# Entry
Amino acid sequence: CTYVMINSLSYVMKEVSKVFLGASALLSNGHVISRVGTGAVAMMAKQLSVPVLVCCETYKFSEKVMLDSICTNELGDPDELLSPALADWRDVKDMKLLNLCYDLTPGESITLVITELGHLPPTSVPVVIREYRKEVTL
# Structure
């Protein structure tokens, strides 16, 4: 197990056998909402044919569908992005820093979802939601 900075991802990914990711939510179209950078890791792994496994409890499964991570997202403090080159960013007219907290990983980049029910393909989210809701309403 190795932890690396995202800028060295393409270098290390050639030696990786599996990628494990966490999820904040798993949407009904199989897309994953997770911390910023997750999508880049999953897409790089897919490009190099490395299996991507997402660990997610079924209570995080959602009936929602999102096509991008811009419309609905949480914004972090823009000052967290500061470097010496951006120290005076507030003085620059029309400059705004956007610190997105989450990104959307396409379901096509996910090999398998690991849940308390076992391992599932990301396309099975609607089935799990339907069956779980049936048990709750009985």
DSSP finds three helices and eight strands in the chain. Helices lie at 9-12, 38-47, 125-137. The chain has a mean pLDDT of 85. The radius of gyration is 18 Å.
